[in-house]
Amino acid sequence: MAGAGLIGAFFSCAFGADSIPTAPPSAPPSALRARVVTVQDRQATEAFRPIPTRIDAMVERGLKGITGKPTSREAWLSLLSTQDIVGIKVYSAPGQNSGTRPPVAATLAKSLIAAGLAPRQIIVWDKSEADLREAGFFELADELGIRVAGSAAAGYDPLEFYDTPLLGNLTWGDLEFGKTGEGIGRKSFVSKLVTRELTKIINLTPLLNHNLAGVSGNLYGLAVGSVDNTFRFENDPTRLAKCVPEIYAMASVGDKVVLSITDGLICQYEGGQRGLLHYSTVLNQIRFSRDPVALDMLSVKELDRQRRTTRSPYLKPNFELYVNAALLELGVSDVTKIQVETLK
Fold it and tell me: Which structural domains are found in the chain, ordered by start?
């Protein structure tokens, strides 16, 4: 179904369509708390490269920690079934050193296979096949027998879309590219990969800054990776703050996410989609949560801390995006209500 423009509707009712406030509203008071399990291993990387055996142990510990189950298999089966088609959503544009690291995705895939899923039921995906190939995910698929897919190449579903009055220039590959008429360009259609094939999604994102979204995290990565016609809001922080949470809130997108994971082995606090390891700090962490907002807020705070520590140029975090996500009940944006458990 079409997205309803929930945040826009909220602001229009409260302030009038032409008087949306520039400052973000406060998140509604809530007794809800978010839980994040952080697994840390000082030997998880060597010269910025993940050590697969250490990653295997970290993922197993995290899965059991976040679900409370005694084994990885029981942990997975509390989140999904062996009949599901599971998409591991990665962020591949910055490459294998600064984006989602293939060894972490490989560990998740091997753990799912050990839990009883057939390899062909596991799809590592992102928006661009070219980015996935450049980052090494196709090699990973050949090794494990799983699949790799680009959501753009899968085409877009004409029945599932996010509708907002924001207009932009449609590009080749967008569903409505080349079409004319009333309303053309105000919809972002969801990839058929997401709507028609995947039944569950594991969101695996790097701890990587994004100049407008704050972090290339769970909310931004899934929302922008799932739909077309994104240029109309990708280059504007205010538009991002509205559109990203609303796209994630669609039943055909965010409702399929069963687990969010932040690959925090390396924290890159400058550079965005470019891999810049000289602007990076080794954290050797992997973070697990059922709450994507809480994970992203912790990432935004960590990135800000690293910039202050290294005396890098100040970058104002886009907190409005995460407050809006909390308004849509996607998770907890108040860091005082995030319970972090660190396992070593």
Answer: 6-14+34-343 (3.40.50.11440)
